[in-house]
Structures are given as structure tokens and as C-alpha cells.
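Notes from the 1:1 (GR / supervisor)

We went over the backlog. Supervisor wanted to see one worked example end to end before approving the batch request, so GR pasted a single chain during the call. The sequence is below; no edits were made to it. Supervisor asked that the structure be written out right there so they could see what the output format looks like.
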Amino acid sequence: MRDKFDRQLERLHVELIRMGALCEDAISAAAEALLKGDSTLADAAEDAERELDRQERAVEDLCLKLLLQQQPVARDLREISAALKMISDLERIGDQAADIAELTRYVCLPADRQTLHIADMARAVIAMVTDSVDSFVKKDLSLARAVCAADDRVDALFDQVKTELIALIAADAAQGRQGLDLLMVAKYLERIGDHATNVAEWVEYSITGIHPSKDE
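Structure output shown during the call:
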């Protein structure tokens, strides 16, 4: 019986890794669509988001089967319960990457786009998503906590982007609409960082039995 349960848990890990990879694909494609003005990449981000929706349902079904058929207790129960919470955040990450992709169809980065730190934000949140899922699969508490700490850098980058966009609009009022669209892109990236943090916090709960935000 335990062997069967362990095999099902391993399958859960594989499916969560796949969800994490789809999140990475969606964010990367959306960010590249913005940097390159490539609508094909925007389409790829939206395709990844639709696949994430399907994957969320599949993982949810697997978790419910584990709960009903195996009736796990203690750490096993926490692990499956945490996975159910995590997939909701991963699906929301896909939604926000698709929102970014949609905005890229209407916004064009200014010629001096290298001065904007949106690409840095995208790289940072992709790393957070990857590490949050890895921390679950590897049961790595230190990695989960590192993801939570990394959110401070994403927040700092968001503040930096806001400052850069204010300067952009101040220099040319005609850039106002574009500046607001770029601010929305940055805000979606900041929210993705928050969702990756949520995932990492559920990982900590699955390992320790204590959810960090509930222990404040």
C-alpha cells in the first residue's frame, strides 16, 4: 500500500514540476514578446496559460484521489494539502503572464528600453517560480525560505520601474498611455512574485506544519 502511495506522490511531484515549467514558459514568452514586439511569443504565453488551466484540474484530481483513497496523515496529509493550495497560485501565475502577453499587443518599449528594469523583474520572478516548485519536490526548507526572501528584490525592482516610468512620462507626456501599460506589466510581474512566495510558504507548511504567515 505504501509503495502505491509513494508512486502516486512521485507522480504528483512530476505534475507539479510540469506546472512550474509551464509557468516559466508563459512568463518568458510574455517578457520576450514585450522586449521584441513579437505577437507570436504573446500567442505562446497564452497557449501556456491554457495548458496550465488543464494541468491545474489534472493535479487537483490527483490530490483528491490521494486524499480519498489513501487517507494520509501527518506530513503526507500536509504535503497533499499544500499541493492543492500551490496549484491555485501556479494557475494564477499563468493568468498574469497571459495578461502581460495581451498588453504586449498594444505597448511598445521605448528605444532606451535597456534603462527599464522590467526584464530584470521577469528574470527574478521566473527564478522564484522555479525554486518554489523545486523546494516542494526536494523538501528543501532553506530554498523555500530563500524564495520568500527574493520577493524583497522583486518589490525593490518594481519601485525602480515605477520611478523610471515616472521619468519617462515627465520627459514626454505623449508617453503617458504607454507608461501606464508598462506599469501594469510591472505590477503583474510583482504579483507573480507574490504568488511564488505563497507557493514557498505552503512548502514550509508541508515540511514544518507551520505556515509562516500564520505564525506572525
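Supervisor's comment: The chain has a mean pLDDT of 90.
Batch request approved.
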